[in-house]
Amino acid sequence: MIDIKVPTVGESISEVTLLKWTKKTGDYVKRDEVIAELESEKATFEVNAEQAGVITLGNIAEGDTIKIGDVIASIDETAAAPAAAPEAPKAEAPKAEAPKAEAPKPASAPAENVKATPVASAIIADKKVDPKSVTPSGVGGKILKDDVLAALSNPGRKPGAELFGRNVKKEKMSNLRKTISRRLVEAKNTTAMLTTFNEVDMKPIMDIRAQYKDKFKEKHGVNLGFMSFFAKACAYALQEWPAVNAYIDGDELIYHDYCDISIAVSTPRGLTVPVMRNVESLGMADIEKKVVELAGKARDNKLTMEDLQGGTFTITNGGVFGSLLSTPIINIPQSAILGMHKIEERPIAMNGQVVIRPMMYLALSYDHRIIDGRESVSFLVRVKELLENPQLMLFGKDPVKALLEI
């Protein structure tokens, strides 16, 4: 009999939460097959079977907290593997029949699979009511006339919600949410955080994407998004303003000659911030591939400790949720974070004329203990310049000025 224990996942982590069992007691498992998913305060990870055999799960329920080194299951490696079930003979595919002509549906009929009385159906059609917003009270889930009238008289109520309900739901905080809470409070209490703002005309980048997105996808197998432009612009600006890419460690400042940029990714379990390494050395396609890889791992709870540690600067995009302007909070121990926002067409003055341009507000939150106002503002202005003139990202400066060495 082999005991399966909770593995060590980090120096400061002493307990984890059982998210999900993937096997049941009595199941035969193969070597290295996943038997459970666990969550630490920083990431989720899987526990694998060390040998093949019949598994017996410990008396641990999903959601329970367990300590590092605890036994969560045992495997009887002497148990014989179950015999493979014989394959059933394949049945011949039925011959396709000619499609039958369907009678046209009356325009006033409610949506398919919706059962309603004739009067209720007529009101639904006349008032253009979404049948899903109506709570049926008839036998077998049939919508009655009074159900439709109730939906019309309470248009702001969520379908199926109790009228004048006062229910409260309590839910245990996950380890990940506890860590997010603790780190945000720590960032607020231990840094001298300020935010500076600017705006960027996104038309040049949008024109490049419109012109080259198909060729880019064909060549590199990945879509050309906005993140590669922002990450590349930030990498240039971080190298020009190294304080924005630095840490405070006690009485020392730690500067980095590389740009490990964290990207904030929202998942159903909470916010995670995986890291792209050496962005200053990556091409646009490499950045886009890394974004897709990290976002996929975050969505599937496959991020490792290595994916989450060591970033020197963070980019977060609230624009995907519709945010027009925000003040992002620093991802400690980093000293700055750039907030992207929603692209919105706005009238601006250009060469003495009022024109409509797709504009985005940028926000840079920074730790004033290490970054002065001049550095923070200059950094953000440099990012704006690079984004509005993407060709500068090839050399980091105007090609003519590079030619003339000025």
In words, what does this structure look like?
The protein is α+β, with helices and mostly antiparallel strands and 406 residues long. It folds into three domains: 2-76, RNA polymerase II/Efflux pump adaptor protein, barrel-sandwich hybrid domain (OB fold (Dihydrolipoamide Acetyltransferase, E2P)), CATH 2.40.50; 118-153, Irregular (Dihydrolipoamide Transferase); 175-404, Chloramphenicol acetyltransferase-like domain (Chloramphenicol Acetyltransferase), CATH 3.30.559.10. It is 27% helix and 24% strand. The protein is built from nine helices and 19 strands. It has helices at residues 118-127, 145-153, 175-190, 203-220, 227-240, 284-299, 305-308, 373-388, 399-404; strands at residues 2-5, 15-21, 28-29, 34-39, 44-48, 53-57, 65-67, 71-76, 193-201, 247-249, 252-254, 261-263, 265-267, 270-272, 275-276, 313-317, 336-340, 344-350, 353-367. Strands 9, 12, 15, 16, 17, 18 and 19 form a seven-stranded mixed sheet that branches. Strands 1-8-6-3 form a four-stranded antiparallel sheet, with no helix packed on it. It has a four-stranded antiparallel sheet with strand order 5-4-2-7, with no helix packed on it. Helix 1 (118-127) packs parallel to helix 2, helix 5 (227-240) crosses helix 6 (284-299) and helix 5 packs across helix 8. The N and C termini lie far apart (74 Å). 28% of the residues are buried. Residues 96-112 have low confidence and may be disordered.
Show the helix and strand layout.
Elements: E1 2-5, E2 15-21, E3 28-29, E4 34-39, E5 44-48, E6 53-57, E7 65-67, E8 71-76, H1 118-127, H2 145-153, H3 175-190, E9 193-201, H4 203-220, H5 227-240, E10 247-249, E11 252-254, E12 261-263, E13 265-267, E14 270-272, E15 275-276, H6 284-299, H7 305-308, E16 313-317, E17 336-340, E18 344-350, E19 353-367, H8 373-388, H9 399-404
Parallel strand pairs: 12-16, 16-17
Antiparallel strand pairs: 1-8, 2-4, 2-7, 3-6, 4-5, 6-8, 9-19, 10-11, 12-15, 13-14, 17-19, 18-19
